[in-house]
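Loading example: each entry is read as two labelled lines plus one structure line.
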Amino acid sequence: MKKIYPNAAAALDGLLHDGMFIAAGGFGLCGIPELLLDAIKDAGTKDLTFASNNAGVDDFGIGILLQTRQVKKMISSYVGENAEFMRQYLSGELELEFNPQGTLAERMRSGGCGIPGFYTKTGVGTVIADGKEHKDFPTGPDGAMETYIMENGIFADLAIVKAWKADETGNLVFRKTARNFNPPAAMCGKTCVVEVEEIVPTGSLDPDSIHLPGIYVHRIIQGDHEKRIEQRTVREKT
Amino acid sequence: MWDRNQMAARAAQELEDGWYVNLGIGIPTLVANYVGDKDITLQSENGMLGMGPFPFEGEEDPDLINAGKQTITEMDRTAYFDSAQSFGMIRGGKIAAAILGAMEVDEKGDLANWMIPGKLVKGMGGAMDLVAGVGRVIVVMDHTNKHGDSKLLKECTLPLTGKGVVDRIITNLGVLDVVEGGLKIVECADGVSEDDLRAATEATIV
């Protein structure tokens, strides 16, 4: 089966429908699937639910789909850098489900591993725990009981992720902190489309250094990435 | 009274040789400047152990940022991983300590630092996972708000980040521990008396 497609629009052909659930990789603007987001904007698919740690900024990342009112709901841990997001949320146009960052990552990972629910201590005693199943486990000092809440795995219709390199079979290598949510997002999608900076011949990646095996990857595109920096911080040379 | 850098320096004394530590945004970030000879590995929850300083101008890498989305550098010991593994090590208790800012802390160790109802809600990010998972939670914050009211309360009024999670509080006025029945004064800042500290604190001091 050929996994390589000529561009983002071709790679998404037949996969998009209104009201669908998409898991997206990236942290802030780092390692986001910018080419696939552009293509979803061009496709005009509406009423989208996104599981994504952040919502981009106004003119980059998921922010571009907020501008065009294509997003119905966001499942995120932090959305602070996006004015249009706040405007739509406060006016009731956009649904928002806050997940603690680690809970969101584990919801993606576990969904991709066929685990529909798991217990975590994160959020116990906070609004995050409201309405969720509570259960005690003997995990404290000397077997003392501790309270956990149950969170559900995420099973998305589509995963869109960004990697550094792929081989022709979809084995992926990420670069530095651009890995972030990309592997767990890739795992939880029924279909996973990946954009990379370089597709290399199968056999040229070290099999011991594959970050995500190609079994999770269905379609691949190569393209030029803007890779915008959100906060440029530097130190003086002394 | 301590200034921001003195608070950070005091917080750095909490860290022990060999620890893996997560530093929050604001004053906690400054703690890295004061660890001295101690072998401390900094975790950045977006997927990195062994976080280095900011890059020199012209050497910024868009693929290398910290949890505050700032450009940073790697070190010889650096390891990268995905967000699920990152929070696996946090939730799994592998991170010895987190040093975080706060809006409110109360005498039961409850912490509020992620939202003010009616104001702009940005999200909790990784804060709830960190306070639930790491070995020790150390809060660094001003003792009072801009109206002069205590931020160390009998009971938090803001939505919580975690319940009963704080171990130690370092403020501009001193150091307090969360113990059975309230807060215990560990140390007063330079020029601050225990009476000053008590007067500025709403929480029960035992």
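The longest helix of chain A spans residues 101-112.
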